[in-house]
Write a structure and sequence with these properties.
By secondary structure, the chain is of the alpha+beta class. The protein contains twelve helices and eleven strands. Strand 1 and strand 2 form a beta hairpin. Helix 5 packs across helix 8.
Length: 401
Amino acid sequence: MNYVGRSGGDVGAASDLILAQVSAARPPKAAPAPPAARAAAGSSAETAVRTTRGSASKRSLADVPSAIAPALHPPAESKLPAVAASKTVPVSLEQRVALYKRILLESKSANPQYETCFDVTQQLYNGLVDVPQVSAGHAAAPASAANAINLVCQVCFDDDAPLVTVDRCGHSMICRACMSTYARTRIAEKEVTPWIRCPSPQCKCPLSPQYFGVSAADLLAFCREHLYRTLAREDDWVSCSGSEHSAAVPASSSSPSAACGFGFLLKDKAMGVQMTAVCDICGIKQQVKRKQPELTPELQEMIKTGALRSCPKCEQYTIKDYGICNVIQCARCGIWWNWKSRDFGESQDALKAKARSHGTLWEPGELHYQMRLEHSDPAAFKALLERNGIRYDPRYQRGRG
């Protein structure tokens, strides 16, 4: 039973603001004279775009934020490697930890490799099974249709620069330079979860890394922040506490603490509440303790009354159904334990035998409730057993406890 809240980032609230920042960051460009052939043809759509958008292209760089200004001219290293058509490949928790370790080790290098950072980003992108490929009400459109609507970049209004068409949704509204600035801004603002999305308003489709057009340092920052946030939401992930060794990672670490940024995956059910382990990044030996759930006032009241109790080994909170005996199994660590006496062990039968001898197998009135339910409402009785992982056996004789 998990009471730790998990919430993804708002993928759309900051889109318009960020596009406005991108627009302000782009240097003004004089509108080129239309080609003679195009002028003779008198394209009404293109004339309308120039007429309505012409004044908006006169912008100044006086107020460009320092975090955005370097993105005006994408570095040479941001040239996109060849990427095969991607398909969804779910990334397990163990794989995320491995990718996070790879990124943290790369961050210790004076010159992080673009190929390494891009590969990690691409793997994370391919694993976006919970992010919609096409947002509701925005069907994917072919590139030709998208470009027929937007003839020029909707940020800098440069009609010479080819527009970027997002593969998952077909939207085509800004040029590559503005797309690079958009991605850089999202990374600088740490708006990276659940992913950097298509810049088209209201579209929630994730943006492929091949369109980011950013440097290795930017990709490194993206992966660090994205993996740190997603792992921090996992119950089985515990952050490293080696705060005095914060030099293991750059000072720009996205971690809210001064720790090295890595942590420990306590996936093994045999692991209890606390253990001793050595961090793979900073090498510090430390006591690792499982996270405690954030309890609301209502849950705290349930603990006070005894309706909610913790496993005596791993401290996972559990609710026991009325009408079930006191020997139950922990969903996290797998041990059997007594709801009343808090005895625990590996054998259900041995624990039940001990409980019978001490009179702790049942809470007052619950055995008789179960026996009455079996005869008065067999369907509800079977549902009670199944809800608690117990297979109904008509030959089993109840009432021995």
